[in-house]
Amino acid sequence: MSSDTLVAASTKPIILFLLLSGESYGYQILQRVRSVSGGTMKWSSAMLYPVLRRMEKEGLIVAEWRVSEENRMRKYYKLTTAGRRELAVEQARWIDVMKAMKKIWATAGTAD
Amino acid sequence: MFTLENAVRAWKRNLAKDQNLEDTYIRELEAVLRDEVADLVRMGASEEEAFGRASAAMGETREIGREFAKVRSPLGRGRGLRFLPALPASYVRLALRKIRRQKGYSAVNIAGLAIGLACCLLITLWISAELDYDRFHAKSDRLFQVLAHGTNPNNPSNPILLGPFLESGVPEIERAVRYEGLGSSLVRYGEKILPGVSVQAVDPGFFQVLSFPFSKGDPASALEDPSHIVIGADMASALFGEDDPLGKTLFIDNKSFLVAGVMQPIPKRSTVEFDAAVHFRHRLLALEADGIKPSWGVWSANTFILAKPGVSAASLSAKIENVVKDNDPGEDARLSVIPFRERRLFFTNIRQYLTLFAAVAAFILVMACLNFINMSTARAALKAREIGIRKVSGANRGNLVAQYLGESLALSLLASLLAVGLARLALPWFNTLSTTRISLEAGRFLPAILELALVAGIGAGLYPAVLLSSFKPAQVLRGRLGSSGKGAGLRRGLVVFQFGLTILLMIGTAAVDKQLRYIRNKDLGYDRDRLLAVSLPGESRSRIEVLKETLLREGAVAQITGTAAGMANLSWSSGTADWPGRNPSFEVLTFNNYVDWDFQETFGTALRSGRFFSRDFPADGEGYVINEAFERLMGSGSAVGKTLTYWKRTGPIIGVLKDFHFQSLQSQIQPLVLMLRPEQANLCYLKIPEGDRPAALERIGTVWKKVMPEYPFQYRFMDESLDTFYRTVRQTGRMADTFTILAVFIACLGLLSLASFMTERRAREVSIRKVMGASTPSILLLLTRELAGGVLLANVIAWPAAYFIMNNWLEQFAYRATLGAGIFALSAAAALILALLTIGVQTLKTALRPPASALRTE
After folding, report:
1. Whose CA is closest to B416, among B111, B99, B123?
2. Subunit contact A73:B27, Cβ cutoff 8 A
3. Each residue of B169-221: pLDDT tens digit?
4. Which positions in chain A touch B27 (Cβ < 8 Å)?
5. Full-model pTM
6. Contact assignment for A46 to B70 by CB distance below 8 Å
7. Can you tell me whether residue B166 is helix, strand or coil?
8. Positive or negative CA dihedral for B200, B202, B204, B205?
9. Complex ipTM, two decimals?
């Protein structure tokens, strides 16, 4: 799996997770991803918005245009019930993967 | 100098170039960009620097576009959707708004289309009703009618022995039943008498093969017993009222029958109609009473076949082709079958009328659509600016095409609603006109009208949509779209085409009328005036001599003669004529009739040579009188004195009559053989004295009552009988008249609105011309020249087409009127006058308008 693919696979659970604490808008999501990952993950807007659009279509999130405190139009995203359920599924899936990976690294040592 | 707003605007414009980036995406990206810029500014960067970094972080437009392409909405490409509604409902809303804004134009379009659609709807329903005949029989897909080739093709008679032979001898056939009329009979029940009842002799399986529904009795067994009769609903109520007819005994021509079945009214669309049916044995008994033994040589019955499942008409025809030849070695006739449900198409000439009116319906619809196309393209110059603005705002061509198509569909749907209303109003009148009884059943007409509306909407809207959407915004907005160009050329072309169709219809209608007049006035070769036919039911035949004597003695009639078959449209035919020297391979179809001595005098037919049957020559019963057509068939020289073998009986030809018409003018005069059999008379022809018709009829009625008190006096003038043969032609003529008027109206409606539009557009030109000294007539000429020229050109195009089509139509008549230049000239003049009248008022108004008013407005 290329790193791009890995990143792409992780976007959905990450967005779901970030929205679990409350509604957010695009720029804020990008910033939080950067801070949560300690700066290792840098998402672009071009990557984020198509994913948000797809998740909207899947009914995992809903969006609404509102005027921000800075008097600018912003689109706010919020988790739906389906989104919460999806997050639980994604979480379980990633935990399984991580457990498996940990075991594999423990027995095989590091690559170098 | 850098301003953030300008930079963001430029950045967005750049993004907008990518078709994958919908408007809503760009807005979201803009929000992120502004957030990031604000953050960077807060951290101390200048706006310009912040914008540079933030936009660079966003990435290249192409990159962004590629990402968004993955989730792009399948509905419409790009940002056009921002300017145009994506849903048909919005198109309809837009269209309705336009209709309100342009009332006159919309009214013309909708009214024209509605009239066109209503005409089409009525014609379509009429055609489908005409094609619906004989389909109500449950086994109609397996039902066939037997035809014989070599005899009269319009007379589907077969040998009387054919039915039983086919049923027992051909494994592909499940049932074969005979059907033959016993003529018009007098039915009596107690004191009640019903004259003129059509009784058919049928095989017992008839009601199992054909599905005439019964209200009483069992169709399968009703006619098993030869003494039984099945009667129709009308006859049952006329004879028995509320009583149950089953088991009652009635008399037909003094023979008793027990009612064993009562039919429900025969469905409207049935080619087989009768009042009562009896066992076929009664037909055989009638033949025997006349001294004729049933044989393969007696051709009189219709034969209907119910084939086994999966048997085709072709295989059945091949199977039975030689049955007659095999059983009657002297007979050359070949047999074939046609599907029963095609009887109407086969035995009448309705097919050509259906084709004709399908074409008329198409013409009218096309004309209504042309109005729409014309008006839409004419208004292109007005719409051009709107289109330019839409295009500049980002609408793409597909969106515009969709919108204009939507508009035209909305108009056609509105027109179809109106059309249904119009059709409903016109239905009683149309039914009278077409002598049918169609109804607007939703199941039938809804799909039809929706299909028509769809065809009209797309047909009329597609070209304007494509044309309008092709305008170049820059040129349009600079005002470079003039009145010339392809739109104007097309408009003129369409007016020419539309008027061409109108003139075609006018010439067609005039030709039909001329032929009808020709038929009415054609010399038939005998004197049809004052000639009336009286049928002789049952026993009354035996009293014909007494009747003749009394009528002549009392001066009630000038002449009287009895014949076996009607002479208005003689259908008795035979293929068995033979004479010395006949080429054996020569197939001869001849018509024949039994007559008495007074036939020639009563009909006033001229004698060419020899003499007619005479009481002074007792041996005339052995001889024949033929017509000129027969004489020509026999070769050169006079036929008088030659011998003729007819129906296997040989005798001398004693006279040759000059040709006269004994069938419709659609066919040539056929060879005719007359035989002297006064006792076979089924009807008599009476020549009433000149003068007061009602008085003469009253005198005849009085004598009739004296001689035949139990039979009602029923007569029909020869003129009326002849008229019925041309009923379809007459009806076609009337329908063609009506639809031509409507087509002309639609064409004029289009012309009117086009003229009003054109004169409006030229108002300034007209005003300037007037100021410069142009006279009103010269301005009138200027304004009408173009359209009038178009109408004249339409004539040139329509004439050859009309000549070809109408000549083809007239060819069905052996005797026909010539088209003549008059019809063409009249149609041209009528079209031109109509066109001038239509555009005249509008142009006159413009020409008379004070120049200042137009110039001020402009």
Report:
1. B111
2. yes
3. 899 999 999 999 887 778 888 888 887 788 999 999 999 999 999 999 999 99
4. 65, 73, 75
5. 0.64
6. no
7. helix
8. negative
9. 0.82
